[in-house]
Every structure is written in C-alpha cells, then in structure tokens.
Amino acid sequence: MMHPEPSGATEGQGQTMTQVAEPGSARAGANGHETGAIGAVHHWIGGRIVEGASGRRGPVYDPATGRIAREVDFANDDEVGAAVAAATAAFPAWRSTSLSKRTEILFRVRNLVETHRKEIAGHLTAEHGKVPSDALGEVARGIENLEFACGIPNLLKGGFTEQASTGVDVFQIRQPIGVVAGITPFNFPAMVPMWMFANAIACGNTFVLKPSEKDPSASMLIAELLHDAGVPDGVFNVVHGDKVAVDAILTHPDIAAISFVGSTPIARYIYETGTKNGKRVQALGGAKNHMIVLPDADIDMAADAAVSAGYGSAGERCMAIATVVAVGAVADPLVEAIKARLPKIKVGPGSDPDAEMGPLVTKQHRDKVASYLDSGPAQGATVVTDGREHPLYDESEGGFFLGLSLIDNVTTDMDAYKDEIFGPVLTVMRVDTYEEAVHLVNDNPYGNGTAIFTRDGGAARQFQFEAKAGMVGINVPIPVPVAYYSFGGWKASLFGDLHMYGPEGIQFYTRAKIVTQRWPDPGTSKVDLGFPRTR
Ligand code: NAD
Question: Does any ligand 1 atom lie closer than 6 A to the CB of residue 271?
C-alpha cells in the first residue's frame, strides 16, 4: 500500500513509497501559476526511485486550475543509460524465468492494478484533466492488456513438424529480443504504457518507459505496483523527459526495439531514426477519423455516437471522431440533433462528480484548438456552436477549458479539416453520395479509424471492404479493438509493419527461431556435401 511522502525522501528497495508531492505544497508565483517549493516526479530505475541529476525539469500542470502542480525530472544520456543498464542486467534472468512464474507475476500485476485503479485514475484526472469515469475507463482498457498477457504460455506456442525429412523434425520457437523501450503520449498515460509493457515483459523482455512529460505520475504508480507484484528489479524502468531522453533511447546500442505512440511528425522521426540505428520500431501516429452517416441511418443513434466519440475525453483521443460526413438529406436533421445535445453535456473539473468533459491538457493546446473557431468561418465554414461561449472558457487564467464546439460546412481545403484538431471541436462535412464520402476517407493522409452509420448491411460491408483505415466501426464510432486483436492504423497513422498489442504485439516483442533437428542414428551416418534436401 502506498501513501504520499515528500519527494526524494523515500528511496530504496522494498519500501512503500511514492514520488509525488502533494499539490498543496505549491505557492503562487509571479506568472499566476504555482511555482517554488513544489515536489517533483523522479525516475524509476532498477526497482527504485532515482532523483534526476541532469539539472533539467519540466512543469506538470493541473489542467483544471491552470496551475503548476509539480515538476518532472528530465533525463539526460547518463540517466537513460542507467535505465538501459538496469534493464540489460535484468534480462538474462527474466528471459530464463519459467512461463508459469512469469504468468503468476502478471496475474498479481493485473490484480494490483485493478485494486489501485482509482488511484491511477486520480493521477490521470489530476494531470491530464479527464473526468473520473473516463479515467477509470482508460485503466479498464489497460487491464484488458494485462489479462491478455497472462495467457503468454499459450501465446508463445510454436509449430512443430515431425519427419520433415527422414528422421528430421522442424519446430519454431519465439524468443524475447532484449531491452525494449516505450515512448508514450499524454492522452492515455496509463493505457498506452500497458498496451506495450504487458506483452513486452510477458514475452521475457525488459522494458524502459519514457512517458509523456505532461502527465508522468501514473507511470510511477504503475512501476510501484509492478515492483509490489514481484516483477524483478530492472525488468521495468521509467525515465522521464523530452527530446533529449527520446534521442538517447533512439541511439542507445543496447535497446533492441521501440514502441511509440504520439503525433505523426514525431512518429515518423522515431521510425526513421530508430530503424537507422538498427532497431525494430512500431510508431503509431496521429489521426483524422471520419464518421460517415448514410441517409438511412438512425439519426438519434448517429447523433449520440457523434457526441460521445467527438467530445469524450475532450476530443483528446486518437480514435475520436474528428469529422462527421453527412451524406445527402441526413445533414440538416443530424446537425440539429448534435447541436441539441451539446448544452446538456456538463463541462467541469474532475472533482465535480457531475462533470462529463474536462479541460484540455495545456493552455497552449486549448488555444490552438480554439483557433479553429476563427479559421473555420474565415475559410467559409459555419460555426454552429462556439465553445468559447462556455463560462469556464477564460483566455487569461484558470483551467484550460473549452466548451463543446461544432463547425458545419467544412471542406477539404480548410485548416479545420487538414489538421488533427485533437480537441472538442467537431466538424461536419456535407456530401451527396456514398462514393464521395469514401473518397474523403481514402484520400486523407491519415488512416487510423473510421466508422459508418447505416441500416444497410450491403453498404456497410462495401465500406468495410474498401475503407483505407486500420480500424473500421459499423454503427460503432470508436472501434478500438479488444486486447486479443491488435491496434493500429494505416497510412500516416502508423510507421512500421506490426500493429500494437494483441497477437501482433507478441510478434513485435519476439523473434522467431526455427530449429531443424536430427538425433544420431549410427546406422545412417554419412558425409553429404550437397545442399540439404527434404526428399
Ligand atoms: P507527441 O508526439 O507530442 O508526444 C509523444 C511522445 O513523444 C512524448 O513522450 C513526447 O515526450 C515525445 N516527443 C515530443 N516531441 C518530441 C521530439 N521533438 N522529439 C522526440 N520526442 C518527442 O504526442 P502527444 O501530444 O503527447 O499525444 C497526442 C498525439 O498522439 C496525437 O497526435 C494523437 O493522435 C496521437 N496518438 C495516437 C495514438 C495511436 O494509437 N495512433 C494513440 C494516442 C495518441
């Protein structure tokens, strides 16, 4: 069980500890934010908290108040090197640990995460801003990945061929690849790390996580839980930081593979730099998810889905619906139905039990998202609902809130369409035919998720067949696959070959070895210089 301690006061193995100072220790500073004697989030290396020595730190905000709640250490090359060294040292024993023992530990991890789900969710609300129901949902989806990883003995079963040649058998085994790293985004500070490390360590690898510097605390609680569950020291490490830490990971010779989730420009950079340095890389990028609504769709069902998927988590989901594509006469009633739902959604801080949508992660991001409410109409779109009219929207101080916003008549040449907005600004595009709607999806540079709403099974099947996206929803607006399938987009939404978690995650974190064996039979011994033949 963990309880708060001042930062840096509790180091050492086997202790109960936490790294996060209470926000109450902060005081108001000249810039209107809390600064000064605040606590800091440190690294987790070799099974213990390690205070950063680089001299560099970044602020961690409480998005609901706009104040700096704490700081986070930024790792340099040496600190990343220390984490990789701990992971390298732990690898031989961990990969030799029996599958039944690894499974037993993973079960305990799963149970501890479940027991502490509200604490984890509390960190998400405090630093990301998402409301508690949403934060608990994130933890639950992460737990699915731990549960999947508990099946590792079955997942690592290979194939066996008896008598491939006379007296010769062939079989395949999958082995871990070594030290692997995960670099994760701000919008799912618990779930995305679990997408990665659950399967990575289940396969016998050791792991170095570099979480988003915007909301780092959940990863430290998770590190403690892994420690408490019996994951050996060095198997799971956390280093915090920015580009300096990421670049140290990308170039470190002892890191075999990198899983990345974040924006497309950084995903491309991670993929290009990581592979240039000889690493296996899967880098998931940004998105622009279209929800097509055909004229025969149930308007209420489609409007509910558009609101849930457009504004849930304040639109800060890579699978959020960014644009509703209304086909034909469905447009007017659909826009009216969405508009009517918006005032009913309660915007507020996570501390308000009635709040359904929280603030955005930083002021800079909130202001960028709000800017589309100016550029949209300037480029010819129609603002139906302006979230800046919400009482919690305040440009000068306070939390980073923006009310639910709706922009109609958006076209492909507008910034509101070309950019990934990643906030509570839903756009509507109007087209005349199904074919035009599919062209929008398929011509877009991103290809993460897409959805179609219709009562026509034939149209839905045609869409499933021809949509150029990695995840398709049919009357389901956010088709995030369950943990026993894999998650990944197409086009600029994924760089690399393998999708994340599920069966492809197991493939990513292992490499195949094929063994061809013959046992000596003195009677058949002979020299043969020809290429081995099976017949
Ligand atoms: P981001 O790309 O800014 O940051 C992701 C990670 O990269 C962080 O750990 C960050 O510290 C690091 N980073 C940032 N700038 C860097 C740089 N210049 N060099 C090296 N490393 C750098 O993304 P974000 O803002 O944290 O997250 C939101 C983005 O992530 C959105 O684009 C969203 O669509 C995407 N996302 C995608 C998926 C998916 O599965 N495809 C899931 C979640 C989020």
Answer: no
318 is catalytic: yes
Give the CATH superfamily of 17-284: Aldehyde Dehydrogenase; Chain A, domain 1 (3.40.605.10)
User: Ligand 1: does its nearest atom lie under 6 Å from the Cβ of 286?
Assistant: yes
* pLDDT above 70: percentage of residues in the chain: 93
Which structure tokens are listed for 490? Answer: 């197409």
Asked whether the beta carbons of 330 and 299 are under 8 A apart, the reply is yes
pLDDT for res 299: 98
* Residue of 138, 266, 490 with the most ligand 1 atoms within 8 Å of its CB, for mutation: 266
401 and 359 Cβ atoms separated by less than 8 Å? yes
318, 338, 426, 483: the active-site residue? 318
**Is it the case that residue 25 has pLDDT exceeding 90?**
no
Residue whose Cα lies nearest atom 22 of ligand 1: it is: 243
d(CA 241, CA 50): 14
Using a cut of 0.90, tell me whether the model's pTM lies above it.
yes
Q: How far is the CA of 266 from the centre of ligand 1 (A)?
A: 7
311 pLDDT band (50/70/90 cuts)? very high
Whether the Cβ atoms of residue 415 and residue 372 lie closer than 8 Å to each other: yes
Q: Domain map of the chain by residue range?
A: 17-284, 289-474
pLDDT of residue 37: 56
